[in-house]
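FORM 12-B: Structure-to-Sequence Request
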């Protein structure tokens, strides 16, 4: 079986009105997804599955997917609003995709072995891909009842330019995931980090907590769980026009129900994304530094 990476790219271009308008972080027009693809290939992934919106297929293949021609197998899955709905009737006014849980579910017919998952617009770091690739191929790693997640130091995922939402994780002494708590409005403080909880009370964090940034390792058994939970989700929330099924909530429920375990793989890599427009120059500066350190060549895709 080829080591597989699934990239959730269905939201790409939605904030910009198209792929051509997406800002670059690299010196030659490279986007964040370019560095993830480069790191994945270098780590040994031999198959990449892109989950995209159907109307962006031609532009996506031309601008992004073609860069992998002759390097690894590329496959496309399509996150359409009516995918995997079963007997549920799609609300006429629904425009928003159903979330990351649904984005993974739509790839069920093109993945038949353990696989990793990332977001297209997040930078994860080269080491993170290596440790996930290794765990996927380890005979004692991913299996039907055991998944994995790369966990980042919370402080290494925060923005200097505003608050962010993060899945803050708790793990036991064996680094098995116990719980994921979605915390909204986290910001840097003098002592680490802090946020206001749902009761309006201030909560302090050290910044050393484990944060989930949606770099997961799954067995294909996740598809059966996802379909069941998505069916339940549609019954309860399907008529809300902006409701979404998020993958951390799915994993958290599976753990609480003792259906699976999940290993936390830790990394010192610094995650970054473009949450605020002010984050862009920081991302560009970070890539420039990584190029100077020799982590990346100046031109990623030079043949």
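FORM 12-B RESPONSE
SEQUENCE OUT:
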């Amino acid at each position: 079986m080829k080591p597989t990476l699934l990239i959730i790219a269905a939201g790409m271009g939605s904030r910009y009105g198209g792929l051509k308008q997406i800002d670059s972080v690299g010196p030659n027009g490279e986007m964040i997804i370019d560095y993830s693809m480069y790191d994945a290939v270098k780590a040994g992934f031999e198959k990449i599955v892109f989950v995209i919106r159907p109307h962006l297929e031609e532009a996506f293949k031309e601008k992004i997917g073609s860069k992998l021609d002759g390097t690894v197998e590329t496959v496309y899955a399509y996150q359409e609003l009516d995918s995997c709905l079963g007997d549920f009737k799609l609300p006429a006014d629904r425009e928003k995709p159903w979330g990351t849980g649904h984005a993974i579910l739509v790839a069920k017919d093109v993945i038949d072995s353990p696989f990793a998952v990332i977001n297209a617009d997040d930078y994860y770091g080269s080491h993170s891909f290596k440790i996930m690739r290794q765990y996927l191929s380890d005979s004692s790693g991913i299996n039907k009842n055991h998944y994995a997640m790369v966990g980042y130091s919370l402080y290494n995922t925060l923005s200097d330019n505003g608050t962010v939402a993060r899945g803050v994780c708790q793990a036991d002494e064996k680094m098995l995931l116990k719980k994921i708590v979605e915390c909204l409005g986290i910001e840097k403080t003098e002592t680490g980090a802090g946020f206001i909880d749902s009761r309006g009370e201030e909560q302090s964090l050290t910044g050393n907590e484990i944060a989930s940034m949606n770099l997961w390792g799954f067995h294909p058994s996740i598809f059966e769980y996802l379909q069941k939970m998505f069916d339940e989700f549609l019954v309860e929330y399907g008529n809300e026009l902006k409701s979404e099924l998020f993958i951390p909530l799915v994993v958290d429920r599976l753990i609480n129900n003792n259906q699976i375990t999940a290993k936390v793989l830790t990394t010192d890599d610094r995650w970054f994304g473009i949450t605020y427009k002010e984050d862009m120059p920081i991302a560009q500066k970070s890539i420039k530094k990584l190029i100077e350190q020799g982590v990346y060549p100046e031109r990623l895709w030079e043949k």
